[in-house]
């Protein structure tokens, strides 16, 4: 058994806070958005964590997600339904990036094959802790798959709504993992409107991105892990494929918490929010100097995971990117597919399209002088490339007529 999941550990959550107004909310109660309609952030007694948990104590633990227990919201260990949330490796891709200091954090190794597992393992544990029996969610695929897996394990019912062009593998894995899945003739925010309506009628709890407070806490572990893996430093730049932005917001929160704990200094990576040019609301708002992003009409891209026309946490993404001195960047589908092809053929690492988008954006940033070749850069490969359609391959070979094997 994983000792991080058998030991009962003290918890340090004090309250929740509206990310826009700072309004305070009680911990240990079920919450959705704040009264201002914005995400709630979990707050901890970091002074107490600081005295209880020296950095060396974390270092001595097994390196999975649960080593960070004191910085996570779950009070009771028995509510955690785990499928083995490992620390994901940092893999160099020197050939396709052209630099030995570009590392891919390969999140495709997580349960259900994407980093959605980090957010959903936390949100489901909290739902269990707070007595939720039925959950609904709009999804482009991976979030629904992670929700279905963890909720089934926790004995919670799920209703999952996907746009009807969601990758087939996602729809099927959701069903196979016990979710009731529907294909909707609309985009993710239109699926979200249906989920919101049912939640208002009291039919289920709404698990839309950032509409419950705990997915950010799960995704925050990417930032904690990164610091630990790099010897309590952070890289010069992070390229994050941005849909709802949970991970970018979560990492930014993790960096602030670690600084308050004295685990890292004040330096921050430049945060690059990467979107597809067919759906780039954050990039448009960034360039226009806006605090919020307008809905993107006619959204389309091969990178379904970042096809999010409107994000409730838009201002949190934009703030983090601006405070960090980073940028929001859009890349086209051809550049995304080229990056996936190059990385797998040259470096042997099969990225998902959204991961490919981060490599494409890195290449663009290098050309535009936004990063240097010797900058230490982390790209997020958010899901396993194996979930996505691949080009046809494999020539026929007759077993009795192989001819000259030197021609193979
Ligand atoms: C959800 C998802 C994203 C976007 O992540 P956010 O943190 O919600 O912005 C990117 N890529 C893949 C494959 C995803 O499933």
Topology:
Layout: E1 13-18, E2 24-26, E3 40-44, H1 46-52, H2 55-59, E4 90-92, H3 94-97, E5 102-106, H4 116-129, E6 134-138, H5 142-154, E7 157-163, H6 168-176, E8 180-184, H7 188-200, E9 205-206, H8 215-229, E10 237-241, H9 246-260, E11 270-276, H10 281-288, H11 314-324, E12 327-331, H12 333-347, H13 353-367, E13 377-381
Parallel strand pairs: 5-13, 6-7, 6-9, 7-8, 10-11, 10-13, 11-12
Antiparallel strand pairs: 1-2, 1-3, 4-5
Helix pairs in contact: 4-5, 4-8, 5-6, 8-9, 12-13
The chain binds pyridoxal-5'-phosphate (PLP).
Residues 114, 116, 142-143, 209, 241-247, 305-306, 352, 354, 382-383 line the site of pyridoxal-5'-phosphate.
Notes on the structure:
The chain is of the alpha/beta class. It is 35% helix and 15% strand. It has a six-stranded mixed β-sheet, sandwiched between helices. A four-stranded parallel β-sheet has the order 8-7-6-9, sandwiched between helices. The protein is globular, with a radius of gyration of 21 Å. It binds pyridoxal-5'-phosphate. Pyridoxal-5'-phosphate (PLP) binds next to helix 5 and helix 9.
């Amino acid at each position: 058994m994983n000792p991080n999941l058998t030991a009962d550990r003290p918890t340090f959550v004090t309250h929740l806070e509206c990310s826009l107004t700072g309004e305070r909310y009680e911990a240990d109660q079920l919450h959705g958005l704040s009264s201002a309609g914005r995400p709630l952030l979990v707050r901890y007694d970091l002074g107490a964590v600081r005295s209880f948990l020296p950095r060396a104590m974390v270092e001595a633990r097994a390196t999975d997600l649960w080593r960070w227990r004191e910085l996570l919201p779950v009070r009771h260990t028995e509510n955690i339904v785990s499928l083995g949330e490992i620390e994901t490796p940092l893999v160099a891709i020197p050939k396709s990036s052209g630099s030995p200091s570009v590392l891919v954090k390969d999140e495709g190794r997580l349960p259900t094959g994407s980093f959605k597992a980090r957010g959903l393992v936390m949100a489901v544990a909290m739902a269990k802790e707070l007595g939720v029996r039925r959950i609904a969610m709009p999804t482009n695929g991976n979030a629904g798959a992670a929700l279905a897996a963890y909720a089934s394990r926790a004995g919670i019912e799920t209703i999952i709504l996907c746009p009807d062009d969601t990758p087939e593998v996602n729809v099927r894995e959701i069903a196979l993992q016990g979710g009731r899945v529907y294909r909707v003739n609309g985009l993710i925010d239109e699926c979200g409107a249906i989920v919101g309506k049912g939640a208002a009628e009291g039919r289920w709890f709404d698990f839309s991105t950032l509409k419950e407070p705990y997915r950010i806490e799960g995704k925050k572990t990417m930032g904690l892990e990164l610091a630990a893996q790099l010897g309590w430093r952070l890289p010069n730049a992070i390229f994050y494929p941005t849909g709802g932005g949970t991970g970018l917001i979560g990492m930014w929160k993790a960096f602030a918490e670690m600084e308050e704990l004295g685990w890292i200094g004040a330096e921050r990576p430049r945060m690059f929010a990467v979107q597809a040019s067919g759906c780039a609301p954050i990039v448009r708002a960034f360039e226009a100097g806006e605090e919020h992003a307008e809905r993107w009409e006619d959204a389309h891209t091969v990178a379904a995971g970042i096809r999010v026309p409107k994000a409730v946490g838009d201002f949190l993404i934009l703030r983090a990117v601006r405070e960090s001195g980073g940028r929001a960047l859009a890349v086209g589908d051809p550049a995304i597919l080229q990056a996936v092809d190059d990385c797998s053929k040259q470096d042997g690492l099969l990225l998902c399209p959204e991961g490919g988008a981060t490599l494409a954006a890195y290449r663009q940033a290098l050309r535009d002088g936004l990063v240097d070749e010797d900058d230490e850069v982390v790209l997020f490969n958010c899901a396993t490339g194996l979930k996505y359609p691949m080009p046809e391959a494999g020539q026929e070979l007759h077993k009795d007529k192989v001819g000259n094997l030197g021609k193979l």
